[in-house]
Amino acid sequence: MWRDEWMPLAVSRFTGGYGEFFEHIKYVGRIGYFSLCWVLGQLDSNLLLFKLAIVLISSFGVFVLCRFSALTRLQKVLFSFGYYPLYEYGTILRDYSLIWVLAVTCCALLNSARWRPLLFSASLALLFQTNPFGLALGCAFGAAYVFDAWLSGRFRWAVARQLPVVGGVLLTLSSFVVAIATMMPPPHIAEIVLGQPLRQDSHFVRFLESLPFPLRGWLPVPLFGSWNSQILDTFPLVQIVLGLAIGACIFMVISQSKKALFLFAAGMLTLGAVLCHIPWTALRYHGGYFVLLILSYWTLLRNCDGKIGVPSAFAIVNLARRHATSMVTGLLVVHAIVATIFLIQEQVIPFSGSKAAAEIIRKNAPPGSLVIGDPDFLMIPLAGYLDQEIFIASRRELGSFTKVDAKRRPTILTPGELSEVISEQLAMQQRDIVLVTGYEIGIPKEIGRLIGVTRSICGENYFVYLVHNSSARL
Length: 474
Known about the structure:
Strand order of the largest sheet: 3-2-1-4-6-5
Shape: elongated
Structural class: mainly alpha
Distance between the termini: 32 Å
Radius of gyration: 25 Å
Order of helices and strands: HHHHHHHHHHHHHHHHHHHHEHEEHEEE
Strand content: 5-15%
Low-confidence stretches: none
Mean pLDDT: 87
């Protein structure tokens, strides 16, 4: 577990009723997932409950895909044990598991022989309440559902005024409005959430920068020991060319079904619109492209009765369609290999150093020591494992989660500022202080000492110092 996993649990642990809880998360943009965590937290604060919930959610997604998709048995196995479903979205406890599972559910309903608009709308409404990537996929599925209704002749007034349809539309629109309101906070709040200024460059520049993203989702090959990396990150032009080549092959295969092609095109547009505004290029953000590819291929198989390979006037199109199954299987093999490597890697290098840092404090710090930390976001998992609030140096107050308000500081403290905070607390508390930072600092031996260092895959590396209560300053 790391900071983004601990955030909803920490908010639910250290707040009162749901009203106070909502006040802290209303600008985070993950209302559905955070609310689920709050409900689970009211039942039991044991971490095992949260972990089991994610396992059950991911397992349900595997069940739906295996039960209703037309993928081959080998493809179903490879998908289930692939990098995103098993590791990135299944093992790492976060709302991404909800995204791919709800997307799979929407795909099953989109391709069902029975028309279930209310059930589809409910799945779509939940998908909207995950995060911006879920919102993007939800918009694509919603548009594809309307397009399919138009193709099948259901797009008529007599059908539109039926209670399940009216109820479904109202439910979907309500969820969409809430999602937009929480995922698009005021500019000054958005900068606090992101921890950096909003991008002001042109949309064209952002579009060019986002061109490598699809390949990172379709063919993730991270560097060992480096989470969210891609082996081709130093060669963006190669990523763009390979991405366009794979995209062209996908288009030639998917174009056999109007519904599958519409879903794929809509998803590429909505995901691209979201991702080109995000200042980071984390590999986990691009998994939506992979989910979209597999679900578009599933839609193609369902609408072609599993018989793909419709003859075309172009030889290259026929070649792509004849080898479509092998291409999809090949991509899934890569995903399964990468997932296996990362599961092994996690046994060698801890995903987060927060748990080890908590153990260092328990074993080496005198009882009753005040724990002070910087930066604030690294203190979320540490507070979770210690099950106590930590004095956030940048805010000069106790806390267990990142508060999104005007007091939040996006940068680390300077040595002088950190020294001032420690000196103030030593004078006020008259007890030993445990200083925890995400960066190394110099500390004289007569004032304190370094009692532990941790390492991690996700960048949560901690330096733990013990500062004696006889010290006046750093």
